[in-house]
Amino acid sequence: MARIRVGLLPTSSFMVGTLPVPKYADAEKTQFATDRETGAKLYTITLFFMEEDRAEALKITVPETGLPNGLRPGVPVMPVELFATPWARIFNGSLSDGIAYRADRLDLVASAAEAA
Prior knowledge:
Layout: E1 4-5, E2 13-16, E3 21-22, E4 42-51, E5 54-63, E6 76-80, E7 83-91, E8 94-102, E9 105-108, H1 112-115
């Protein structure tokens, strides 16, 4: 699969939408999905992505080692090494497709109010 580095504008910002949840390797949710290189457990987190005059919710996969303390809804963060991987599959005769997002880690971003 082709991984595509996501280019962000200097004005791009992200905010935590939901807390991270474990990602599972099987439908029965008995086995955690892990990073192929490090073996770290993988989590999915929903972030609100805002850029210029648009906003959207993105589900991003992040290894447990890349999740900082202090994550909660509304907290500003910045994904580091964000990649997008297009995917498609046929299930029961119908096509499903989308984009899977993956980041090495999330960095907490101090808000202007906190910095003042």
